[in-house]
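User: Please predict the structure of the protein below. I'd like the answer in structure-token form so I can feed it into my own downstream comparison script.

Assistant: Understood. Taking the following sequence of 469 residues as input:
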Amino acid sequence: MALAFFCANVYYLWISYPHVFFGPMLSSTWQGFLNEIEKNNPAATVYLSVLKQIRLVEVNSDRFTIDCRNQGMLFYLAKKKGEIEAAFSRFVKKDMRADLMVRVSTKKTKKDGGEPLLSFKPSIDDVFARAGLNKKYQLENFAVSSTNQVAFAAAQAVVDNPGGAYNPLFLHGGVGVGKTHLAQAVARKILETRADKHVLFCPGDNFTNELIEAIRGKTTPRFRRKYRGLDLLIIDDVQFIAGKMGIQEEFFHTFNSVISAGGQIILTSDRPPEEIKNLEDRLRSRFRGGMIVDIQSPDFELRSAILLIKATEKNIPVTMDAVKEIAQRVEDTRALEGSLVSIYARTIGNKDQVDNEAVSSFFRQKTEAGLKKVSPVDVIRLVCSVYHVRPSQIKDSTREGHVALSRQIIMYVLRQTMRLRLEEIAFILKRKDHTTVIHGVKKINALVVSNPIIKQEVDRIIQSLHLSP
């Protein structure tokens, strides 16, 4: 009876004050758990032998943390996480969830018991993938001209001295100017030199979604460990955190933690800090504290260079005259590759290479086809992809700035380019009446005249609709 009373009190203290019970108490608890496993499942020899090599390092009211010692054990036990949670919950008679992590070096001494269970060393491609990088973005295939040479030089400086040169590095410009390519290329170059660096490329909306999920699941400490311990943090389209007070608060502390620890931050946006609406002044100030670079739309020479790089990568034979013709007709860098591939697909079997005649024929057919193949749904999908908006938001009552702008651009394209009636557009976008469409079209008409960035984006959208295969 006395023993039961003692155990009950120990368990109460253990659950209430877990930080007190490191060392012997956690060790004895884990040993008792292992004894229970061995008694109830004596046939699980491999499973049990692995569990005997790991440590219980922390227990909270509804979670427990185990040190897997090396990546091999972590990989093995991650598949059995549910089984471990169920067994431990039965042992302590309380619903518990497990956190698996590696806190010690994978190199073990004789005292530790010999070699680790598995020798795991991720490939460089695995390292890139874990950091969220696309393998096609490299400094070596980033074409440079007068429109982006300052940004390229700043990126190289960051590679040579991460955390010391231009921190943060803030890249801004319109759609398809190479912001994401350059930011990821910097991360790749750093990891090629030091694969052990903690690097993460994160779109702005992902940061928002992860934080919301962490708050909902009560895993905010894990979220903070993930972001605040990074050597290089890249936030793509950082303008998406504006207007969200809780998100900005968390990002402010994340920003300070990374910078204070000597880490590097790279931010990309479609506009400079002073033009991001609803951005907290303290964040705006932090963004201005480093290097702000405006990447201009690619000029003719740069578009030609990009085409030559893409042709080499895809082993597409193309004449210089054909390259110049495509670069002259296509201004959007994202459409360059698609145009080149489409033209090449039509020439296979007829010609040995893409020449000027093939290019002219391709664009002539596109012009003749006009907008007959383009539907309002195509317009909505394209604009939504450009502005990172869900099609469902376009048709609901959302009035957020970037959603409203996207909706008005769709109205403009449907009215001015496809010549749809006002009532048709209102019906397609689920607006109450056509006066909303009139207002939207007038607004974009004015912006196209006064805002060169909006004009470029609208022109590229219309051009992409003409060129879409």
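That's the full token string. The mean pLDDT is 84.
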